[in-house]
Amino acid sequence: MHNYNLTHLEQLESEAIFIIRETAAQFERPGLLFSGGKDSIVMAHLAAKAFSPAKIPFPFVHVDTGHNFPETITFRDQFIERYDVQLIVGLVQDSINRGTAVEETGPNASRNALQSVTLLETIEKESLDACLGGGRRD
């Protein structure tokens, strides 16, 4: 059933909330990917809205490169506390230490590409069977 009185933004929000609720209903152990960036903050707010007044029924998953500003981690932890949700942290350094990821060297070295290895390892370790993530259409 379509409600043609909704604005475009309200319709997108409604669809996102539906998908979040369906994911929670259809999977045993979903997680929400959470970097602390604007996309994941919007997803967290949508998840909170989807289950209000109850708690968000799945953990947030953060892949930590180890290269964050301290303020970023403080913000993440305060945000997690505010929503009273479980936080799962996968550390890129742990993947490097295990030898499953190889750190880049040189003046333009980055750990960004290594995050996918750590994410997959974290998904397996935590037995997550679905992951929600947000991305802009631009």
What does the model show?
The structure is a single chain. The protein is an alpha/beta fold. Helices cover 47% and strands 12% of the residues. It has five helices and four strands; from the N terminus they run H-E-H-E-H-E-H-H-E. The protein has helices at residues 8-26, 38-51, 70-83, 92-98, 115-125, and strands spanning 30-33, 60-64, 87-91, 130-132. It has a four-stranded parallel beta sheet with strand order 3-2-1-4. Helix 1 packs across helix 2 (38-51). The longest helix is centred in the N-terminal third of the chain and has 19 residues, at 8-26. It is globular and about 55 Å long. The two termini are 28 Å apart.
Task: Summarize the helices and strands and which ones pair or pack.
Blueprint: H1 8-26, E1 30-33, H2 38-51, E2 60-64, H3 70-83, E3 87-91, H4 92-98, H5 115-125, E4 130-132
Parallel strand pairs: 1-2, 1-4, 2-3
| Spatial gap, N to C terminus | 28 Å
- Please bin the fraction of helical residues: 40-55%
In spatial order, strands of the major sheet run 3-2-1-4
Order of helices and strands: HEHEHEHHE
Decide which structural class fits the backbone.
alpha/beta
Shape: globular
Low-confidence parts lasting 5 or more residues at pLDDT below 50? none
Average pLDDT confidence is: 93
Tell me the major beta sheet: 4 strands, parallel
- Total of DSSP H or I helical runs spanning 4+ residues: 5
Whole-angstrom Rg: 17 Å
**Extended strand count:** 4
**Proportion of beta-strand residues:** 5-15%
